[in-house]
Fold these 2 entries.
Entry 1:
Amino acid sequence: MDDIILRAEKITKIYPGTVALDEVNFNIYRGKVNALIGENGAGKSTLMKILAGVEQYTDGTLLLNGKEIAPKSPREAESLGIGIIYQELNLFPNLSVSENIHMAHEITRGGMVIKHGEQEKRAAGLLARLEQPINPRTLVANLRIGQQQIVEIAKALSQEMQILIMDEPTSALSTSEVEILFRVIQELKAQGVSIVYISHKLDELLQIADYVTVLRDGELVAESPMEKVNLRWIVQSMVGHDTAVSYTPPKHDFGEEILRVENLTLERPGKVQAYLLDHVSFSLRAGEIVGIYGLMGAGRTELFETLMGLHPHAGGEIWLAGQKVEMKAAINQRIQTGMMLIPEDRQREGLVQTLSVSHNMLLASLRNYLARFYLSSAKEKANVDRLIKELAIKVSNPQNLISSLSGGNQQKVVVAKALLTSPKLLLMDEPTRGIDVGAKAEIFSIMSELAKRGLGIIFVSTELKEVMAMADRILVMAKGRITAEMSRLEATEQALVEASVIGHELIKTGV
């Protein structure tokens, strides 16, 4: 058996009314990738926060190299050589990339003056290691979420750690960026660094993990060397029974055209004749699910932002349910006409962490509950209770803080918020980001049911299998253009990748 660098023995964590971890044992093997998996709410992130000093356990023992430890803060854990990349980004948007990477570890002169030049040079080296051409002086607020994820990884790599915890590190990364990260992980392993890797992308675990540990409902279910397990074993251990998740929606008829987009353009700031969206045209019928696939920078998120009115200077024409949408119409006006967006970053753009589940669900539709000068609490409660039941949101009390819910249930709350606006068109940007295989199936079941009711749905996903399974029709984007369109029956992984990569290269060379 490989050397165990850290062992968690009978770790228990109790919150008021909830046992998050129940006498969990967990081994971290030296110089190996130790995968930790389980459904949302299984206790994975809680266990990792305990190892990283963010949370303290109620009972149990932590042994690092045979010596008992009990880190009371992230700084104390770092001093022991334990670092973490959080699932939810932990960055300061008003500071530069370099300042974020060196936060709390600044390079100073005499302990007083920060040596910004040296920090930027070091940050540039870390970003080069990750093969990312990001300027260290760029404000984090100006980066896309995938680039912010890269900064979070660079921040962790800036410290010399003997254990590095990666909680969903690839949730916002493109395929090529994932490959780069995997190469960095192999380098770290060669240097003797132990990796704890949490991911809901099970194919990633089969590719890089050496050991796998499964949690379910706060309890240890199984541990095994990766060469002795397969995908079926992993899924069965996670959910408690053998299952083959099918995302394919049942067949149903489409209605009339619900959306038409013609020659949508969005200029790239500061550049002449360069577009983020380059004369994009397509249509969508009621009840149809259209998937959009493309590489990072293809223009997928910009397309959704433009449809929702975030870029009023954009050109082109949009019709929703036969009515022309003015390009200068504000976001709230577009919501009233029947458009609604479920954003990629649910934590920052979809939810307010200091509010309850109920208040988050009602945020976008408050005007519907006005009774003269007051809000009708009875009407609010009725709609909240209805959506909780319809979407099977697991919450003991709607007045609980949204942060008390698992990632999959938080995503359902974002969907509920959208549905309470009575949309005709639902835009879903990476709707399954950071949620487990069971929660993904639930989200896709919800999408299918909404389509049957006549909603038009457009969703973006970097997961090829998800796009091919769920979409009635697939649009491929590259450099702001639609480079291919195909039905579910016509689509193959090779065709989609070629359309995104070859299209990207043709546009790059001016063809």
Entry 2:
Amino acid sequence: MYNQMKYRIDETDKSPAYLQLYRQVRDDIVDGIYPNGAKLPSKRTLSLEAGVSTITAEHSYSLLCDEGYVEARERSGYFVIFSKDDGFAAVSENEIRSLPPVRKSQDVAKDEQFPFSVLAKTMRRVMSEVGEGILQRSENIGTAQLREAISRYLLVSRGITADPQQIVIGSGSEYLYGLIVGLVGRNKTYAIEFPSYKKIEQVYKACAVTPEMLPLGSDGIDSKALWKSKAEVLHITPYRSFPSGVTASASKRHEYIRWAEGKGRIIVEDDFESEFTVSKKPEETLFSLSQNDNVIYMNTFSRTISPALRVGYMVLPKRLAEEFSHKLGFYSCTVPTYIQFVLTELISNGDFERHINRVRRKKRNKA
């Protein structure tokens, strides 16, 4: 039953009103206050209660629709389609093959490429302003400047709160996969999506780990396979898993988080390419949704800037950041200091985010 006088806009919160409203309604859906099938308050009712325009309320509901929490029904309103107990049967190989093809990181459309002129200008400026500083040795987990820039970017754009000491810079995803095995241990049982990016399986096997293959369903890993698995580490690509193109729904993402509540379980969230979602807001991350401090978040600049840079990063749970320092802190950073300074400048001056927003607008216009 709808509880009046509940939603409020916090004037001290720097995030837009529509995002605040979106989060409040989303949390009520996840908590079961609005169960599956329930009708949500009308846009007018919501706007009056929260003290915002109906356009703001509509924008909030639009985001909930984008992420699979609710659906709009013509002349009827908005209804909850999220369910914590959702489970989906695995799709056949023929169904997987019928899904839209997903490009590899090297196959970047021309209108999605990072502007070379901007990159070249930034490289020259860093070379001129930093001078011989580009020859200095980076900290083992990456320069403080880049880690701080990534920390700020993730907080604003992805809702991820992470101290720079939780961030580790490395030369691409494959290198970071190996570090994860070194951190978590080879004696663990790892599970990955099937099908998935081939190099994930190859790197794990090269590290003396034979991953368990969990079949993908229409919106993520098949529920029966997930809960039957003996895995302690689950490696997932929630956004447009390659090569299937499957994106995990809101229900499935929360199912992954519930799975990880088991003792000692860890999720590796491989968030490749999600910045280019056509949604009106960035995709939700499991790292930001989870309250269990057991998600390792990974991303790279291969898709957003260039695969030639070979720069990736991972955000460790707080409890693993110190353990990483003890176990693997002796590893030198594999990304040149110069490239790290260039990325720092691109993120800090807004060029990186402007490029992402430009590409997302173009993709939405084509959709």
